[in-house]
Amino acid sequence: MSEQTSTRARRGRAIAVYGLLVVAPVLLAVGLLVGGDGEGTSTTTVETVAGHPLAHLLLAIAVVVAACKLVGALLQRIGQPPVIGEIAAGILLGPSALGAVWPEGAAALFPPSVLPELNALAQVGVVLFVFLTGLELNTRLLRGKGHLAVVVSHVSIAVPFLLGVALAVFAYTRFAPEGIGFLAFALFFGVSLSVTALPVLVRILQDVGLLRTEVGVVALTCAVVDDVTAWTLLAVVVALVTASSLTGVVVTLVLAAVFIAFLLLVARPLLERLVRRTSESALRKLAPLALVGVLLCAMSTEWIGVHAMFGAFMFGLVFPRGNAAESWLRQNTGGLTAAVLLPLFFAYSGLRTDIGLLADGGLWLWCAAIVFVAVVGKLGGAAIAARSVGETWNRSLQIGTLMNCRGLTELVVLNVGLQLGVLSPTLFTMLVLMALISTAMAAPLATWFARREGTLVEVPRQRRSSRLPVPRP
C-alpha cells in the first residue's frame, strides 16, 4: 500500500506542476494575444497561412508527381513506356487541358509565384538526368560494330538535320520570334528533328523483349554514338545563338574544347586513380561528393555559354565505372531524379505547351508536316543507312523505328530553345507533339517488325533497373 500511495503522490505532483507551469502560462499568453488586437492578428494569420509559398510549392509537387505516375502507369498497360504518360500528364496539367477546362483550378495549383521554384527544381532534375545518361553510356557496345554505329547514327542525325533546315526556310517568316536570325532558327530546328532518346530507348527495348537481341544491341550502339554527337551539336548551336559576335562564338567553342580536354586528360585519370586507391566502403562515403563535381561542371559550361547540361553529360561520361561510388549514384540519384525531379520538368514543359495555339487549321497542317519530316528523316535515314551496310530490310526498319524515339531528350532540347527565345510558343507546341508521336510509334512498330522476323523475346515483368544493361547478341 505504501508503494501505491507513493506512486499516486508523484503523479499528483506531476499534474499540479504541469497545470501550474504549462497550462496556466499558455492560457495567459492566449488571453494577452486575443485581448491585444484579436481581429487584426487573426486575419493576418489566416492570410499568411493561405498564401504561404512553401505550401503552394509542396501542393504543386504532390499533384505533378501523382499525375505523372498515374498517367504513366495507365499508358504502360497499353504497351507504351511510362515516360509517354508522364509527358502527356505534364501537358494535361497545362493550358492545353486543365487550364482550358478549369482555369481557376489551374491557377490555384500553379500560381505565378510557384513557377520559378518549379523551374529551378526541374533544371536541377535535368542536370542530374543528363549526368546519369552520360554515366550509363556503355562504350563497350561499340566493339565490333563501330562502322555500323557511326554510319547509322550519323546518317540518322544528318538527314533529319538537313530536312529540318530545309523546312526552316519556309517556317522562318511565320514562326521565328522577333530578333532571331535565320541561322540560329534553322540550326535549332534541325537539331530538334535529329535527337534520339537513349534512356527511353532502353526502356522500350526492355518492354518489347528486344534488349538482348542483335537488333537491340545495334540500336543501342547507334544511340550511344547519336547521343554524344547530338549533345555536342546542341552545345555548338547554343554557343552560336548566345554569342553576340563571331569572336564570341570562337571564344565559346575554344573554352568548351578546353573544358572537354581538362575532363578527358586531367579529371578522368585523377578520378580513376582515386577509385583504384580507395576502398569500397570509403568510396561509398565519398560518393555524394561526385554530385558536387556534377554541379561544378554544369556551372562551368553554363558560364562558358554551351548550357549546363553539356557539363553534366561530360562529367558522367568520364566518371569511372564499376565501383561503389557509381553504384551509389545510380541507386540514389537516379531514384530521386526519376521519382520527383523529372516529373516537375514534364509539368513545367506542359505548362508552356498550349495546344489551343494550334486552333487554326493551317497550323495543324504545319504540325503534320513537321511530324512527317521528322519521321521520314530519322526513321527513313537510319533504315536506309542500316540496309546499306548489310542489314536486312526488316532489321533496318526496326533500327530506324527505334532511332526515331525522341522522348525526354527532345523535351530537354526544346526547352533550351524556348528558354533562349529561338522557338516561339506555337512552334514549341508543335515540336512537343512531334516528340510525343514519334516516341509513341517506337514500341508498337518495333514489336510488329520483330514478330515478322520471329526475334521477339518474351521477358517476365520485373522491377526495372535504372542501370543501362550490357546486352550480348
Our measurement of the CA-to-CA distance between the termini, rounded to an integer number of angstroms, reads 83 Å
User: How many helical elements?
Assistant: 19
Major sheet summary line = none
What is the molecular shape?
A: globular
Radius of gyration: 27 Å
Helix-strand makeup class: mainly alpha
Strand content: under 5%
Q: How do the helices and strands follow one another from N- to C-terminus?
A: HHHHHHHHHHHHHHHHHHH
What value does the average pLDDT take? 83
Give me the count of strands: 0
**Helix fraction bin:** over 70%
Give an account of the 3D structure.
The model is unreliable at 40-50 and 458-473 (pLDDT under 50). By secondary structure, the chain is mostly helical. Helix 10 (214-242) packs across helix 17 and helix 18 packs antiparallel against helix 19 (425-453). The protein has helices spanning 2-50, 53-76, 82-92, 98-101, 103-109, 115-136, 146-175, 182-192, 198-208, 214-242, 246-277, 280-286, 288-304, 308-318, 324-351, 361-388, 393-403, 407-420, 425-453.
In short, what is this structure?
By secondary structure, this protein is mostly helical. Helix content is 79%, strand content 0%.
